[in-house]
Write a structure and sequence with these properties.
8 helices; 10 strands; TIM Barrel; two-stranded antiparallel ribbon; alpha/beta
């Protein structure tokens, strides 16, 4: 599941409240999801994180962002904070780069790199820093369906996994075509499909028929081995009694024990 601190959706999207939003670990329990990608796009929680991550003691797999839109620390500082946290948090298994590409990712010059928050060389350098406390952390990046310029391949190649998202719900009708276009760029990359439960691109609820559409495709691709998992977005929504969230909770419960691959 995609995790944000409680209250994170108030300023940019006008939903939720710091005082009443469900906390991330409680959202996992509510939804029946064992893993979380914590993304500090509002700059919260603030370091040190040791007390905050105690809520994830029962979480199977935790990842932590260092490219995420938070403005209160530099990317280098956030990376150092995440690596330091990993030394004391055995279930922290990876670092995430959210909203990694800029705009549609089209290079500024012909033959240049895709526009991104880190250069290819910088991403490659990060991959050399991921040995922590006797284990290697994964490095993952977010890609949106409107960023499928061939130049993104150079950034994709060094990372361990991609999280593939459709920003605007109305574009989900093109999910099959867009995912096929992504696979032409990165045919073998470990990929998890992002599942929005609210239309953040247009700041409104998401219709159930689109929830059903993306989840049906996701389960089919998971069974075929075309993706490695799903990421439901996001934890603060889980206490708001949204129709799409409640539908997703029931869908997850129904399919939780499906054997997707031998």
């Amino acid at each position: 599941m995609w995790g944000h601190d409680s209250g994170s959706l108030v300023k940019g999207y006008g939903i939720g409240d710091k005082g009443t939003d469900i906390e991330p670990a409680a959202a996992l329990e509510y939804m029946g999801i064992p893993n979380i990608c914590m993304v500090r796009f509002t700059g919260t929680p603030l370091p040190p994180f040791d007390e905050y991550v105690k809520q994830f003691a029962k979480t199977k797999r935790l990842t932590w962002s260092f490219v995420d839109g938070g403005k209160n620390f530099t990317t280098e500082e956030k990376k150092s904070q995440a690596l330091d946290l990993a030394t004391r948090t055995p279930n922290l298994v990876g670092l995430d780069m959210d909203d990694f590409f800029i705009g549609d990712a089209v290079p500024k010059t012909e033959g240049g790199e895709a526009q991104a928050h880190l250069s290819v060389a910088q991403v490659e350098a990060v991959t050399k820093e991921l040995e922590v406390a006797g284990r290697r952390l994964d490095l993952s990046m977010v890609i949106y369906s409107n960023q499928l310029h061939p130049s993104i391949k150079r950034h994709i190649d060094p990372v361990d996994a991609v999280y593939f998202w459709t920003w605007k719900a109305r574009d989900l009708v093109n999910l099959e075509d867009n995912f096929a276009a992504y696979r032409r760029i990165a045919p073998a990359k470990k990929t998890l499909l992002g599942i929005y439960m609210w239309d953040f691109g247009e700041k409104k609820t998401i219709p159930l028929e689109l929830m059903e559409h993306q989840c049906r495709l996701a389960l089919d691709w998971l069974k075929k081995g075309e993706i490695e998992g799903l990421i439901f977005h996001c934890t603060p929504l889980c206490g708001m009694k949204l129709e799409a969230v409640e539908w997703s909770k029931n869908w997850i419960s129904h399919h939780a024990n499906d054997v997707v691959r031998a």
